[in-house]
Amino acid sequence: MNATPMIDAQRLSLMLNELRLPTIKHIWADFAAQADKEGWPASRFLAALAEHELAERDRRRIERHLAEAHLPAGKTLDCFAFDAVPMISKAQVMALCAGDGWLEQGANLILFGPPGGGKTHLAAAIGLALVERGWRVLFTRTSDLVQRLQVARRELALESAMAKLDKYHLLVLDDFAYISRDQAETSVLFELISARYERRSLLITANQPFGEWNRVFPDPAMTLAAVDRLVHHATIFEMNVESYRRRTAQARRTGAGRPAAYTTPKVLETIRDNQDENDELASDNLNRH
Ligand code: ADP
Ligand code: MG
Description:
Elements: H1 9-18, H2 22-38, H3 42-69, H4 90-98, H5 102-105, E1 108-112, H6 119-132, E2 137-141, H7 142-154, H8 158-165, E3 170-174, H9 187-196, E4 201-206, H10 220-232, E5 234-238, H11 244-249, H12 266-288
Parallel strand pairs: 1-4, 1-5, 2-3, 3-4
Helix pairs in contact: 2-3, 3-6, 4-6, 7-8, 9-10, 10-12
The protein binds adenosine-5'-diphosphate (ADP) and magnesium ion.
Family: Belongs to the IS21/IS1162 putative ATP-binding protein family.
Region (Disordered): 268-289
Protein name: ATPase AAA
């Protein structure tokens, strides 16, 4: 006769509820039967229960983090053809997917390139890999986030809205340079970049090189300050390839595309040079607010 009938199973269930050990509550009876049958030492039985509780807890946490990440479905590393973007090192991407190092430092990752080149796919795939490693990620279209933050600002809750984003080790801002100034006032984006600087990471995808980000921010000085902060600790991928869909529709051909000319430090100077030209525009813009 085994020992199980000698304890009050119902009371044990209540205690395990109270202790918030749902997995042990679920499995202990089967494990106890097996332990009794096979003569496990008590310590092995206890360790087995603890291990299962922890493993299940991890699984549930990752499931929650996946749900909250809002990643586009089906964009994984497994189905990303690295040979279509020969300028990107798969080994470097894999290293980024571990998250250690850059996410701890609040460093950024920026993906540039023309539409269809796989920026969104790669960003989502990296996000997914990071969630699977236990990091917290939020994927959002930049315009959606700008709208949310603007609403928060109107309600005098911008700071707390940004503080809520702090729980995400990585914020993926897809289609960054799609924002146009007349769409809305985007200084909230600048505030977000400043708030996360050297603390929490951003992954930005953009069709436009830095030189054209003057369309994103209310004035060139803000563009310059934003770019400065973003690139201070950043990895930059230039995915200057033809649209993947178009290419796969045509006969298969891969190439290195245009040489990387987007993101040299010169870009910062270009923005500075453009500043005078844009001053008039900028002050118009400021007057609107
Ligand atoms: P972008 O964000 O640069 O405009 P997307 O990531 O949306 O491009 O890519 C367009 C489509 O092509 C998507 O369906 C994406 O999954 C697919 N795609 C792009 N690049 C690759 C790639 N290297 N391997 C597999 N699929 C790709
Ligand atoms: Mg995209």
